[in-house]
Design a protein that fits this description.
- The complex is a heterodimer.
- By secondary structure, chain A is mainly α.
- In chain A, about 75% of the residues lie in helices and about 0% in strands.
- Chain A is elongated.
- The termini of chain A are far apart.
- Chain B has one domain.
- The chains are: A mainly alpha, B mainly alpha.
């Protein structure tokens, strides 16, 4: 029975979830919790929050599976990325007053503290903070296209924008990141290293 | 230091998933009520009933009694022929005016 469930497509499992099949739901969770945890973590940057977001998303799916309409032709994963991304964005908006001042202070002082920042924080921290400081939708576009490996069309569908608008979000995200990381000495900044 | 942004972005650590996450989600779902697909008309009726219960303050037996009384009244009308034997003095015209129907003939047909 377990082997049979494992061979079923996500979309067919969703049909079974609609009729209250807990085993089908469990199979979907086993298949995708890691994938969507990564997506949530890349959006919010914290383990516990990412776990809460993924759990909320799956419970939402369990309680209201009719939200997914296979008839519209969307892949289950594309639809569920949208659910997780929207929950993550809501979560970050609620948390904004707590997290932003620290990031903004850090970013405001980034030029004079470039070398010190590199000493105090490792490269990963600097990169994570630069990405965390991006506006939510730019961050989501970057995560979906760059880290989740989705096509621009899929990412645009998830963020409910056109492909051109998605490309614009990506371009702005990369431009901001390039400026920030360059200012902090992580990108092509020979002149800063020399003068610093 | 990196010359290329994409190269730097690729160095971002992959998040580590907790081993218990799936089990935790599956257990949480099991505690919640199972998802059963309910036909749309049943959902509408349930919603209507819930809204009605929120609006009305009388106890349930009062509504049950009212529905029963209406049913008996309807059954009596249905079982009696014209004229309305069980309501002496009430004509189809009276019923028509009571029901705001101008054409007494329609009520006569209905009764």
């Amino acid at each position: 029975m377990v082997e049979q469930v494992q061979e079923i497509s996500d979309e067919s499992l969703m049909e079974r979830v609609c009729s209250g099949d807990h085993q089908a739901f469990a199979e979907l969770v086993e298949r995708h919790s890691g994938l969507f945890y990564s997506a949530a973590y890349r959006m919010c940057g914290q383990n516990e929050e990412a776990e809460d977001i993924v759990q909320d998303a799956f419970l939402k799916l369990w309680n209201k599976p009719q939200g997914y309409d296979a008839g519209k032709g969307a892949k289950f994963t594309t639809w569920f990325y949208r659910v997780v991304t929207n929950l993550a964005i809501d979560h970050m908006r609620r948390k904004k007053p707590q997290t932003n001042p620290e990031v903004l202070d850090y970013m405001a002082d980034k030029v004079p503290l470039a070398d010190q920042a590199l000493e105090d924080k490792d490269q990963q921290d600097v990169l994570e903070e630069a990405i965390a400081a991006l506006p939510e939708r730019q961050k989501a576009a970057l995560n979906l296209c760059f880290y989740e490996g989705l096509s621009n069309k899929e990412a645009a569908e998830i963020l409910e924008v056109g492909v051109k608008a998605l490309e614009s979000l990506l371009m702005r995200a990369k431009k901001t990141l390039k400026e920030d990381l360059d200012a902090q000495g992580l990108l092509g900044s020979e002149k800063k290293r020399v003068t610093g | 230091m990196f010359d290329d942004l994409d190269q730097l972005l690729k160095t971002r650590k992959k998040p580590e998933v907790s081993a218990h996450l799936s089990a935790q989600i599956i257990a949480a779902a099991a505690r919640e009520r199972p998802a059963v697909k309910i036909p749309a008309f049943v959902q509408v009726a349930k919603g209507f009933w819930t809204d009605m219960q929120a609006q009305l303050t009388l106890p349930r037996p009062a509504y049950a009694f009212a529905v029963l009384a209406l049913f008996i009244f309807g059954a009596l009308i249905g079982s009696s022929a014209d004229p309305i034997g069980f309501l002496p003095g009430v004509t189809t015209d009276d019923l028509a005016s009571f029901m705001l129907i101008e054409d007494g003939f329609v009520v006569g047909e209905w009764v």
